Amino acid sequence: AFLDWAMKYRKLSYDTRDSYRRWLNSFCTWCIENGYFKDNPCKDIKTISGAHHTLSQEKKKIKSFYIDKCTREKIFDYISEHNKHLLLAAYLCNMALIRPKEMMALQIKHFLVHDGLIFIPADISKNKTDAYITLPDEVLKLMLELNIFSNPDHYYLFNRQLVPAELEKPLRGDEIRDEWIKVRKALKLPDSLKFYNL
After folding, report:
1. Cβ distance 20 to 6 under 8 Å?
2. pLDDT band at residue 12 under the 50/70/90 scheme
3. Is the dihedral of CA 26, 31, 33, 37 positive or negative?
4. What is d(CA 41, CA 76) in angstroms, rounded to the nearest whole number?
5. Are 110 and 96 in contact (CB under 8 A)?
6. CA distance linking residue 176 with residue 180, whole number of Å
7. What would the pLDDT profile of 27-73 be if each residue is shown by its tens digit?
8. Using CA atoms, how far apart are residues 156 and 152, in angstroms rounded to an integer?
9. How large is the greatest C-alpha to C-alpha distance in the chain, in angstroms?
10. Other beta carbons less than 10 A from residue 16's beta carbon
């Protein structure tokens, strides 16, 4: 029922709906392993994106690129030491599932700390609807460490150096890619490894 509701009212793409389904399946598996469920209620829910897939072969390849645990740890150790603002971008992308372009349009005022939420306004959202996303503890902790909330509410979260700043309009998201390329070169990682793959 939740997946049907999300497709109809949140206007999710088939791929996003299937991502939700995979997450629910993983969560239900965890619940079974820890004695909360006896059966997995997601086991009979099928993915649907295969028949409707619109991604090019190139994009499919990028999406499915796997980064082994050792390499992931090396990347996160490096950016934790050398560029914590890029680490914040990685956290937002991977823990809050916010797209780079949306991330660049976020302002400090969109972080509702007392409610534990991030507000994504319709005008910056890919699906053109307002959305509230849970503010993960790790993201909040890093934002506090970086003194993000000492900036005025109207500041954008990221400028070209990925630090909060007053801008006339948000940047496009290429800045995250540019910082990622520096990390990739420093760690001698293949060019095929994209920020999205994290």
Report:
1. yes
2. confident
3. negative
4. 35
5. no
6. 6
7. 999 999 999 999 998 888 888 865 555 555 555 555 556 788 899 99
8. 9
9. 54
10. 17
For residues 75 and 189, what is the distance between their CA atoms, to the nearest angstrom? Answer: 9
C-alpha angle 170-128-50 in degrees, rounded to nearest 5: 115
CA atoms of 195 and 192, how far apart (whole Å): 10
Report the alpha-carbon distance of residue 61 to residue 16 in Å, rounded: 17
Round to whole Å and give the CA distance between 49 and 59. 14
In contact, 107 and 154? CB cutoff 8 Å:
yes
Neighbours of 181 (CB within 10 A): 14
Positive/negative CA dihedral, 165, 87, 139, 32: positive
Q: What tokens were used for 116?
A: 């534990």
